Every structure is written in structure tokens, then in C-alpha cells.
Amino acid sequence: LAGLKSCKDILYKWNYFNNNIFIEYFNLNKFHQTEIYNYNYYFYQNEIKKLLNNNKLKIPYHLKYLWSNISNQINRRILITMDLFNGKPVLVKSSQINQYHSNSDYIQAMNYISIFSDILIIDLNRVFDQTNKIIKELENKYYIHTGGGLRTLIDIDDMLKSGVRHCVLSSMNDELIKKIPKDRLIIEISINEKK
Question: Which helix or strand (DSSP H or E) is residue 185 part of?
Fold first, then answer.
């Protein structure tokens, strides 16, 4: 009975997703009328403009300035992410490590995701030396981007010299951001719904 209940729950959730969330998304965002014809324009760009112009929100000037500089330069790219914890590929759910996958072998994980042109490798626990060895091993074969644990210019320079195409940075350190070549940088902006 437990398996039957689980199966029913999965079917219910799948139907709910398909019938409610999925359809609502396409009805609201009119993908077939907007994004499919305007593929270099993200549907959320207008929402971001509204947020940035909302005087009730206290958004730092440098973030507004950053958005105004990049908003017209945004081109769509899908980055497939492989999260590493202690050098092993993991699944992350709600900011928590959920489980190891691919027999804890990053080469096996790369074989699964290598059909995509851009791969982002995130070092979750900042085992920098170990991740750097993995990056150096993979960078000749794959188009690699990386992030996680990049706190100093030395860290970023080391990654870029090892063959990484771009570094993902989530730092608020303006001076650090200014020193990194912009063509090798991806800025991550995370929004916490609870704050």
C-alpha cells in the first residue's frame, strides 16, 4: 500500500504541475507570443525594472547601476550545473545537499551532462585545491565555468589561468569585481524570498 500511495502522490503532483503550474506559466508569460520570437529577451526583465524603480525597496545604487549596464547586453545561455561536495557530484535541494549521484564520480557525471555546451561547476564546500585539480582535468575537454569559494583576486586569477572560461561571483565587493576582466565574469544575484 505504501508504494501505491506513493505512486498516487507522484501522479497527483505531476498532474497538478502539468494542469496548474505549467499551463499558468505559459498563459501568463505567453511564451509562444513573446520568448519564442524574442529569444534574446528574458520575460522577467520588465519585472526587474519595476523592482528597481520601486521607491519602497532599498536597493543599493551599485546593483541598479550594474543592471542598467548589463540589461541590454543579455543573451540567453543555459548553464548546466554540476555541484561538487568534497570533489563528488551531489544533488542540492533547498540549499541542502540531498544526495550523491553518478556513483560519486565527477567523470561519470560529466558524461551525462556533456551534451550541453556550457557547464558550470560549483564548489560547495570550498575545497579549492581539489576542485582546481578537477577543473584542470576537465577544462581541455569541456567548456567550463566555475564558482563557489572565489573570494580573492588570486582565487579568480588561478581559476582563469587553469582554463575556466568564466568565473561566477556572488560577492558584493565592488573593488574585486572591478579588477576582474568583464568578459570572463558572471555575476550571480540571489534573491531570498524570506528577506
Answer: strand 185-187
